[in-house]
Amino acid sequence: MEKTYDARIKLKRDTNSNWTSKNPVLLRGEMILVDTAEGELRAKIGDGTKTYSQLPFCDEALRNLINGLNLGFAATEDDMI
User: Fold this and answer.
1) pLDDT for 64
2) How far is Cα 80 from Cα 31, in angstroms, rounded to an integer?
3) What pLDDT was estimated at residue 41?
4) Cα dihedral across residues 61, 67, 70, 76: positive or negative
5) Of 15, 26, 42, 57, whose CB has the highest number of CB atoms within 10 Å?
6) What sign results for the dihedral spanned by CA atoms 18, 20, 21, 22?
7) What pLDDT was estimated at residue 68?
8) Residue among 23, 64, 28 at smallest CA distance from 45
């Protein structure tokens, strides 16, 4: 039987500069949202020991992989279908 809960979870959200200036240690499993100077919304998840600035963004490994690829072609409208 599936359980449902009538609850809402609100994550902490602030700018990268504010997170960096406070540089808190995020609890193990604690997720925060970060508004970057580039206008992106990114996330970090704490491990209970590292400070904000020591933690990577959740999507950092994937972004590095994508940025490291040289696909050798330009996307066209036909590629988008």
Assistant:
1) 85
2) 33
3) 96
4) positive
5) 26
6) positive
7) 82
8) 28
C-alpha span between 12 and 41 (Å, rounded)? 12
- 3-class SS string, the chain: CCCCCCCCCCCEEEEHHHHHHHCCECCCCCEEEEECCCCCEEEEECCCCCEHHHCCCCCHHHHHHHHHCCCCCCCCHHHHC
Q: What are the per-10-residue average pLDDT scores of the chain (81 residues)?
A: 87 98 97 96 97 96 82 58 55
Q: Which amino acid is at 57?
A: F
Number of residues written out for the chain: 81
Dihedral sign, Cα of residue 43, residue 47, residue 52, residue 54: negative
- Nearest Cα to Cα of residue 36 among 8, 65, 13, 55: 13
Identify the CA nearest to 20 among candidates 65, 60, 51, 58.
Answer: 51
